[in-house]
Amino acid sequence: MSIKTTMTKTKIALALALVLGGASTALASSDTDPSGGYVLPGSLDGVNPAYHPGIFANPAAARSYGFVKTQNGAWEVAPSVAQHSEAR
């Protein structure tokens, strides 16, 4: 095998690694949460609902995380979830 063939195969392998690495990064990101971060079920500590529209714009999704909207429009942990987490 010549050096030219080896270098070509090396370049192809590196290009493939870059393409696959970029694709996996793109798949790992979320389209609905462009700012990053995460939300833990049953905890609003440090969470800004405006940065997580995939959860807080959908009442069913928010409920699945244990959150309910109060009459004044603020989000809080559902009482049943809060009591469960305090018992731990």
Would you mind describing this structure in some detail?
The structure is a single chain. Helix content is 50%, strand content 7%. It is rod-shaped, with a radius of gyration of 22 Å. It is mostly helical and 88 residues long. A two-stranded antiparallel sheet has the order 1-2.
The backbone outline, from C-alpha atoms, is rod-shaped
Q: What proportion of the residues is helical, as a percent range?
A: 40-55%
Distance between the termini: 65 Å
- Counting structural domains, the number is 2
Largest sheet: 2 strands, antiparallel
Mean pLDDT: 76
Class by alpha and beta content: mainly alpha
Strand order of the largest sheet: 1-2
Total DSSP E strands = 2
The run of helices and strands is HHHEEH
Please count the helical segments. Answer: 4
Features of this protein?
mainly alpha; 88 residues; 2 domains; two-stranded antiparallel sheet; 2 strands
Please summarize what this structure is.
Helices cover 50% and strands 7% of the residues.
Detail the topology: elements first, then pairings.
Elements lengths: L2 H26 L24 H4 L2 H6 L2 E3 L5 E3 L1 H8 L2
Antiparallel strand pairs: 1-2
